[in-house]
Design goal:
The complex is a heterodimer of chains A (110) and B (123). Chain A contains one helix and ten strands. In chain A, 39% of the residues are buried. With 110 residues, chain A is mainly beta. In chain B, a hairpin with a 6-residue loop joins strand 5 and strand 6. The chains are: A mainly beta (110), B mainly beta (123). At the A-B interface, strand 4, strand 8 and strand 9 of A face strand 5 and strand 10 of B.
């Protein structure tokens, strides 16, 4: 069972916006930085958001991140069929000296 | 360009051993922490182990502690994962990942991922 809780799936139509939540069962998110990863079907994960809300170079500004207290949120605007993927949140739990991932959320663009 | 190339995966019997390698290029390997992340078939991501860059401090998930050993050879730009006493539940794709430190305290994220190597534990 993941320490970080994500909805198993979300869906929306092309062009719309969707949000994916990531909530903590302990203080790990509250005290540390959250990152988000996109895993397209059959490929390795890729960094999407780091430091709660920063985008690496090459990531479109349709992708956004935020954090409040012990919850984080990934936003994807202007949905495209190519955004269909699994999305994972993660953080370094400094109190446990372990990395923790959310269980992942499957995005379907209808 | 940062490249991470894993190797060493394969089929092994329960109780057996395997050593994974990850050849890194495109960055100063010794300056960065590295980590292994695995993904069982049809499942989510699971962090396995990490090693810091300079002092080679190591960290493990409880599920592999005492069975797996992470190490690095900075002269060869290579990361390793020695896996002993393998179990069926260790079956997964194993990803080698470069860790980036952010600006804050305990601020880390998984910057670049390799394509993975598949480990199958079965009799």
């Amino acid at each position: 069972q993941s320490v970080l809780t994500q909805p198993p799936s979300v869906s929306a139509a092309p062009g719309q916006k969707v949000t994916i939540s990531c909530s903590a069962s302990s203080s790990n998110i509250g005290n540390n930085y959250v990152s988000w990863y996109q895993q397209l079907p059959g490929t390795a994960p890729k960094l999407l958001i780091y430091d709660n809300n920063q985008r690496p170079s090459g990531i479109p500004d349709r992708f956004s991140g935020s954090k409040s207290g012990t919850s984080a949120t990934l936003g994807i605007a202007g949905l495209q069929t190519g955004d269909e993927a699994d999305y994972y949140c993660g953080t370094w739990d400094s109190s446990l000296s372990t990395w923790v991932f959310g269980g992942g959320t499957k995005l379907t663009v209808l | 360009e940062v490249l991470l190339l894993e190797s060493g995966g394969g089929l092994v019997q329960p109780g057996g051993s395997l050593r994974l390698s990850c050849a890194a290029s495109g960055f100063t390997f010794s300056n960065y922490a590295m980590t292994w992340v695995r993904q069982a078939p049809g499942q989510g991501l699971e962090w396995v182990s990490a090693i810091s860059g300079i002092d080679a401090g190591t960290f493990y998930a409880d599920s592999v502690k005492g069975r797996f050993t992470i190490s690095r050879d900075n002269s060869k730009n290579t990361l390793y994962l020695q896996m002993n006493s393998l179990r069926a539940e260790d079956t997964a794709i194993y990803y080698c990942v470069k860790v980036q430190e952010g600006v804050g305290a305990s601020d880390y994220y998984m910057h670049v991922w390799g394509k993975g190597t598949t480990v199958t534990v079965s009799s």
